[in-house]
């Protein structure tokens, strides 16, 4: 996965959804529980929860699983207490990583993440050592078939977005973290469903990867991180083209 290539990430995430339904449902359940805990169980008044419910629907997550996750967040059902933790790390070749974790056991989560990086030629870094290489912001991706740049810009900027970026594959809307809910709601009101909507870590500097061996190592590291139950999202700043990614996956 090219760390900087947001559209490749979306395609890869969809493939993971298809092949690892149980893991995807577990992640969504934790996110839904946390969203309901912080903003309430009514999606009409909780944009973060509303966005997650759309993701759950797209993943064909059973309705009873969704309801149970919401009720755990609102306290209607007993459940474990989850914490959100962000780890910073370096992978092979100096590639920077930000790993978001939701866990009920910080010690276990730290050990699991540290072990994966160690096995794949990387290491955990201190807080702040890596994050400065990323922009922490709301990010929405939409294909060009869904709207025009002018129409999207009018909707997004009026809702508080900072920028709308166009590429061959589609449009990227960026906004301040605190404006995420408002922008999400504005897109929803115009029936514009993003291919991806998240508060992300977007690389501002990238590390070029041109060697297939290095690419294979990075892909294995990504896969190993994704296999950890507590890991919710992985962001990195390697830059590799699609042809190299395909060759590395062969």
What are the key terms here?
Alpha-Beta Plaits; alpha+beta; four-stranded antiparallel sheet; 250 residues; Arc Repressor Mutant, subunit A; 23% strand; 9 helices; 3 domains
- How many helical stretches? 9
How would you sum up the global shape? Answer: globular
Number of strands: 10
Mean pLDDT: 89
Number of domains: 3
CATH architecture of the largest domain: 2-Layer Sandwich
Rg over CA atoms: 18 Å
How helix-rich are the residues, as a percent range?
A: 40-55%
Distance between the termini: 13 Å
CATH class of the largest domain: Alpha Beta
> The CATH topology of the largest domain, please?
Alpha-Beta Plaits
Structural class based on helices, strands and sheet pairing: alpha+beta
Please, what is the CATH homologous superfamily of the largest domain?
YebC, transcriptional regulation domain
Main beta sheet, described? 4 strands, antiparallel
**Approximately what portion of the residues adopt beta-strand conformation?**
15-25%
Assembly state of the chains shown? single chain
Give the SSE string: HHHHEEHEEHEEHEEHEEH
Pick out the low-confidence regions.
Answer: none
Q: What is the spatial order of strands in the main beta sheet?
A: 3-1-2-9
């Amino acid at each position: 996965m090219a760390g900087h290539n947001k559209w490749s990430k979306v395609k890869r995430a969809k493939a993971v959804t298809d092949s690892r339904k149980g893991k995807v449902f577990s992640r969504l359940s934790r996110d839904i529980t946390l969203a309901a805990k912080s903003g309430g169980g009514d999606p009409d008044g909780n944009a973060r929860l509303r966005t997650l419910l759309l993701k759950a629907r797209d993943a064909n997550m059973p309705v009873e699983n969704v309801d149970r996750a919401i009720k755990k967040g609102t306290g209607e059902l007993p459940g474990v207490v989850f914490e959100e933790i962000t780890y910073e790390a370096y992978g092979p070749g100096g590639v920077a990583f930000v790993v978001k974790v939701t866990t009920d056991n910080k010690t276990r989560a730290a050990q699991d993440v540290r072990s994966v990086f160690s096995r794949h030629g990387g290491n955990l870094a201190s807080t702040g050592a890596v994050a400065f290489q990323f922009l922490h912001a709301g990010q929405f991706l939409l294909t060009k078939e869904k709207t025009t740049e002018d129409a999207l810009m009018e909707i997004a900027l009026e809702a508080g977005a900072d920028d709308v970026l166009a590429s061959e594959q589609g449009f990227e809307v960026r906004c301040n973290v605190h404006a995420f809910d408002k922008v999400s709601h504005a897109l929803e009101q115009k029936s514009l469903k993003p291919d991806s909507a998240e508060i992300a870590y977007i690389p501002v500097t990238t590390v070029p990867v041109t060697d297939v061996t290095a690419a294979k190592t990075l892909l294995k590291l990504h896969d190993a991180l994704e296999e950890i139950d507590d890991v919710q999202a992985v962001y990195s700043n390697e830059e590799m083209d699609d042809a190299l990614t395909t060759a590395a996956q062969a």
